[in-house]
Amino acid sequence: MNEGLIPRRYAKALFKVDTERNSANRSYELMKQLCVAFKSNRQLAAVVNNPFVDNADKVRLLNSAAGAQARDTTFADFLQLLVENRRVGIILPIAMAYIDIFRKANNVRCVEVVAAAQPDAKTIDRIKSVVNSCIGHASMEFSTRVDENIIGGFIINIDNECLDASIRNRFKEMRLTLLN
């Protein structure tokens, strides 16, 4: 069984239903929050995959982890479908596939700036304008992260592309040049 194909099929089906019901933006936010919850709490996956935990408890836990509310009926129905089909254990890959499908359908690019110290608002605005000129008409989800190990400069990640203008990278390039 291909674990990449099955989650993608479930995600595509949910996206299709969400598009028909005009709830794709909400499900996208719920799926992003669910991914954050899995990343921040390693025990969540263990509980969801535990056969001794009641399915109703799993659904309540996942609704809570995603931040779902009573009005999120499509999401609740989807979780119930996963339980009935014994697929609740692959909710994380489904959520990741849904996020990918949503971003491609809505031309959303993920931009992350990594710096040695938190950049000020003026610097962030300059970076955003430069990135905007590069990605064209796409919208962007912008985030920053501090990594003191890069020493100085910055790294810009746009989806799978990386521009590394960090001091650490320059030192690495200089070292390779000297070794050659």
Main sheet makeup: 4 strands, mixed
Into which percent range does the helicity of residues fall? Answer: 55-70%
If helices are DSSP runs of H or I spanning 4 or more residues, what is the number of helices?
8
| Overall average residue pLDDT | 92
Per DSSP E runs of 2 or more residues, the count of β-strands stands at: 4
What's the SSE pattern? Answer: HHHHHHEHEEEH
Described by the principal axes of the CA atoms, the overall outline is elongated
Q: In what order do the strands lie side by side in the largest sheet?
A: 2-1-3-4
Strand content: 15-25%
Global structural class: alpha+beta
Rg, nearest Å: 20 Å
Spans where pLDDT lies below 50 across 5 or more residues: none
Measured distance between first and last alpha carbons:
47 Å
Features:
180 residues, 8 helices, 61% helix, alpha+beta, 16% strand, elongated, single chain
Summarize the structure.
With 180 residues, the protein is an alpha+beta fold. Helix content is 61%, strand content 16%.
Walk me through the structure.
The chain has a four-stranded mixed sheet. Helix 1 (5-21) packs across helix 6, helix 2 (24-40) packs across helix 6 (91-106) and helix 4 runs antiparallel to helix 5. It is of the alpha+beta class. The protein has eight helices and four strands.
